[in-house]
Amino acid sequence: MLDRDLLREPLIFLVRFALVAGVLYLLRSSISSIYLSMVTTPANWLIGEEPGAVYVQQGHELSLVYRHFGLRFAVHDIIYQNLLVALALFAATRANLMWKLQWGGVAVATLWASHVASLFLGSHVIVWDFLWSVPDDVRKELLPKVAERFPMERDWLFSRLFGLWHTWGRQSLALVIWTLAAMPLIQRMSGAKAQQATRAT
Amino acid sequence: MIGFGSLAIDRASLRFVALFALGLACLGSVFEAAPTVFQQLYMLPVSHLSTALLQAVTVDAILDTSHLGDGFCELAVSRILYRITFDCTGIFAVLAFTSLTLAYPATWQHKASGLALGLPAIFAFSVLRIAVLGVVATIEPDWIEIFHVYVMELATLGFMLFTWTYWLGQVRHA
Q1: N or C, which terminus of chain B has less Cβ within 10 Å?
Q2: Is residue A181 predicted with pLDDT exceeding 60?
Q3: What is the Cα–Cα distance from A71 to A93, expressed in whole angstroms?
Q4: Residue of A2, A25, A191 lying closest to B150 (CB–CB)
Q5: Do B166 and A21 touch (CB under 8 A)?
Q6: Among B143, B93, B119, B2, CA closest to A85
Q7: What ipTM, to 2 d.p.?
Q8: Between chains, do B24 and A14 touch, taking CB under 8 Å as contact?
Q9: Do A183 and B164 touch, CB atoms closer than 8 A?
Q10: Which residues in chain A are contacts of B169 at CB distance < 8 A?
Q11: For chain B, where are the E strands, in sequence order?
Q12: Nearest residue to A170 via CA among B125, B153, B98
């Protein structure tokens, strides 16, 4: 049987989390524009001039342009979905404002670095994914040009890292930062509720 | 204590988070090494039950499991084909809940009761998640992307943490 006293605090957390996530969703376009401008420049710097891959931001949309091959890809905006998850988690946690700001800052900085790194990996992975999907004759023509700028031997490693990051890494990182920050608070919170429930019985 | 002010971390929290991350990495490796087990024990029942739930609410839903070996099922909702992958079934929440519960400093009896409470709850939520996506696909197909990548993703994570913090309360209560 579910204990009503023990349910209250987790339920409050869930409602606050849902409300904050909803508000963040409504503000998504604005957050997107600001955030993309923060990741695009360092990602382009990391890629460098030589490969000719450039991330181009247009408002809240991001594209990856390969100047030497005449290719352009739209980049899905879920790269920062875990950022919204982390912000919602920190905002929903019952803690003082300073705690939220400081830990929220740590989360944003860490996730920002991970997003820049994933955009760098993406510049390699996307062009190779494209190359494997085209007909043989087109591939034969493009392959030497692509391999010259995006070494083929890196493709295996970068594709694995990119895939693992997308499936497991993104959410895990947000969750790990939040758990690390919130653990003492959660223990205190559930302890207090448990004491109340004990007194009630 | 490591750090300062609000950013201070105690050793117990650090140990717990390290165990959680390690557990999640191990479970993720098991998943990557033996996806067939998860396809049969998790994806297949979730897909079947959510299809049954959709049919129960009179949504025109047909499930095709012939691609299960390739890592997905196909769900036709109102004659539009959707691919159910592990991402859609909230597998991350299952593995994260398991790791969080196993990493927490509690007795093995408590951990077992936590898994017995949480895993079926998350499983049921995942069935509901696909069913909700099916309903959205019927009512407003344009919203499916938003629901898939944002709404239901966050709802699953929120529900998983709700279940886990409830279990924490139970542990402390005992």
Answers
A1: N
A2: yes
A3: 44
A4: A25
A5: no
A6: B93
A7: 0.86
A8: no
A9: no
A10: 3, 6, 9-10, 190, 193-194, 197
A11: 61-64, 73-77, 80-84
A12: B153
Sign of CA dihedral A154, A160, A161, A162: positive
Q: Domain-by-domain residue ranges, chain B?
A: 8-173
pTM over 0.80: yes
Q: How far apart are CA A189 and CA A170, in angstroms?
A: 27
Spatial separation of the C-alpha atoms in residues B86 and A148, rounded to whole Å = 36
Beta strands in chain A (DSSP E): 53-58, 61-66, 71-75
Q: Give me the numbers of helices (H) and strands (E) for chain B, helices first please.
A: 7, 3
Tokens 């299960």 map to which residue? Answer: B68
Q: Is the pLDDT of residue B109 over 90?
A: yes
**For residue A154, is pLDDT > 90?**
no
State the total domains in chain A: 1
Contact B169 A10 (CB under 8 A): yes
Q: Which residue has the tokens 């936590």?
A: B114
Count of other CB atoms within 10 angstroms of residue A85: 26
Rounded Cα distance, B93 and A7, in Å: 19
In sequence order, the 6+-apart residues with CB closer than 8 A to the CB of B44 are: B65, B68, B73
The Cα of B17 is separated from the nearest Cα of chain A by a number of Å equal to: 6
Percent of chain B surpassing pLDDT 90: 56
pLDDT of residue A201: 47
Residue position matching structure tokens 């993406």? A122
d(CA B169, CA B162): 11
Q: What is the pLDDT of residues B36-56, one digit of tens each?
A: 999 999 999 999 999 999 999
Q: Which residues contact A10 (CB under 8 A, 6 or more apart)?
A: B161, B162, B163, B165, B166, B169
Q: CB B40: neighbour CB atoms within 10 A? A: 11
Locate all alpha helices (DSSP H) within B57-143, ordered by sequence: 91-103, 108-139
